[in-house]
Design a protein that fits this description.
Elements: H1 2-7, H2 14-17, E1 22-25, E2 30-33, H3 41-61, E3 70-73, H4 83-98, E4 105-108
Parallel strand pairs: 3-4
Antiparallel strand pairs: 1-2
Length: about 140
């Protein structure tokens, strides 16, 4: 699943299109793709999210995983992720979620919502803007 998420990225990181192996070292909090550790900041963000979602979707398919059927990601467009790229990732995640037969919940926060997801049952909560901030002071 993880490699499928990487393969569906936009043409920003050529290594993602032909990815073969992701190594994750939980002890050192490190990961590599086909032995490479260093990508652009936005590609590292994409790769980290792909790893999170890859593990999550694997846990829906494989009974031996002992993870809750819940994932929360609040950095989908960290490190200079461009709008079209994060919206593509959102669409990939939504499609994988819709194709699962296992009850689960995904929460991701974004300020660049994919318009195909916006105003659907998949989105909850208020929209925030520069004039309507997420934090409000009520004195």
């Amino acid at each position: 699943m993880l490699l499928a998420i990487l393969n569906r990225d936009l043409d920003r990181q050529k290594e993602f299109k032909n990815a073969n192996k992701v190594d994750i070292d939980f002890t050192d909090n490190a990961f590599s793709l086909d032995g490479e550790y260093n990508f652009s900041a936005s590609s590292n963000t994409y790769l980290k999210n792909a790893i999170r979602y890859g593990i999550f979707f694997a846990s829906l398919d494989l009974d031996f995983f002992r993870l809750p059927r819940f994932v929360l990601c609040d950095n989908m467009e960290d490190k200079g992720m461009e709008q079209v790229r994060t919206q593509n990732l959102q669409a990939v995640i939504a499609e994988l979620s819709n194709n699962s037969n296992v009850e689960h919940q995904i929460i991701f926060t974004t300020f660049m919502i994919n318009e195909e997801l916006n105003k659907t049952d998949a989105c909850v909560g208020k929209d925030y803007t520069d004039s309507q901030k997420t934090l409000e002071i009520n004195w």
